[in-house]
Design goal:
The structure is a single chain. By secondary structure, this protein is an alpha+beta fold. The protein has two domains: 56 residues, no CATH class; 184 residues, Glutaredoxin (3-Layer(aba) Sandwich), CATH 3.40.30.
């Protein structure tokens, strides 16, 4: 971290009495007897500032995605996709089935898909926040996708795991124990489902790696063609999608290749730390 000395003083603050850092900056002759130089003192201060920055980063928590940046979220082969695979706009959704804010955001996503049936696809990535029951629900949704029933299972899970009580969504994680019965009502093959559920544990791990790399540590999280979407209202989604659709329409890249070539290939692969250069 290269900083000019006046900036270092401002960051470190003023002190009426000399501190150890002041003494280090002043420099004492090293063991070799060679007098310290200005470069030695600056290097010593920079090392200390790096430690301060690391401590501050840890105390403040993980850095969040920059709303002005475009992030590369590559798609996993197991990611369930709703909508046309050659859509010009890709919404990557990070969620877990026991997150109350996720269930509240779900109707907005349904509205968006209804408005843009040909131009928007929604890609699901899972981030387990609410423990084992949420993980189990996620693996069943992934397994249902392998039988072409992801949307049906997703809808059924939202309905089964959440009830409106006193005007608010209330979670019922105990219903996770009845997912096999739920799967039967959807016509899923039970033997194949059991095999695929085990394999879908890798999907959960893949989603966590992809999302945490770009600063996602909670749910829900949305990226529209790589742009972090914090406002979860329909109007906000609609505005961002219209902007991204206009950009895609101006591009000479084919719709089927647009996300990989313009977003994944060019976007940031990880979130920057607060004190990164």
């Amino acid at each position: 971290m290269k900083l000019a000395y006046p900036v270092l003083v401002l960051l470190l603050g003023c002190s009426p009495q000399p501190t150890r850092l002041d003494e280090a900056a002043a420099g004492s002759p090293p063991a070799t007897g060679r007098p310290t130089t200005p470069d030695d003192r600056i290097a010593r201060l920079e090392r200390r500032l790096d430690k301060v920055a690391t401590a501050l980063d840890k105390a403040l928590g993980p850095a969040e995605p920059d709303p002005a940046a475009i992030y590369a979220l590559p798609l996993d082969d197991q990611d369930p996709i709703e909508g046309p695979r050659a859509a010009k706009v890709t919404i990557v959704e990070g969620y877990d089935f026991l997150c109350p804010y996720c269930v509240m955001a779900n109707p907005v996503i349904d509205q968006i898909r209804a408005k843009y049936p040909d131009d928007v696809r929604v890609v699901s990535k899972y981030l387990v926040v609410h423990g084992t029951p949420a993980a189990t629900a996620g693996t069943y949704a992934c397994a249902a996708a392998k039988q072409g029933k992801f949307t049906e299972m997703k809808t059924a899970l939202w309905s089964r795991l959440w009830k409106t009580e006193n005007g608010r969504p209330a979670a019922h994680p105990e219903e996770v124990g009845k997912i096999d019965e739920l799967a039967a009502t959807l016509g899923l093959d039970p033997a194949r489902l059991a095999t695929d559920v085990d394999g879908c544990k890798q999907w959960l791990q893949s989603g966590e790696r992809t999302l945490t790399a770009v600063g996602v540590h909670g749910t829900p999280a949305f990226f529209i063609n790589g742009r972090p979407q914090r406002d979860r209202s329909f109007e906000a989604f609609d505005r961002t999608i219209a902007q991204e659709l206009a950009k895609a329409n101006r591009s000479s890249v084919a719709a089927a290749d647009y996300y990989d070539r313009e977003i994944v290939a060019k976007g940031l692969t990880q979130v920057k730390g607060r004190f990164a250069d």
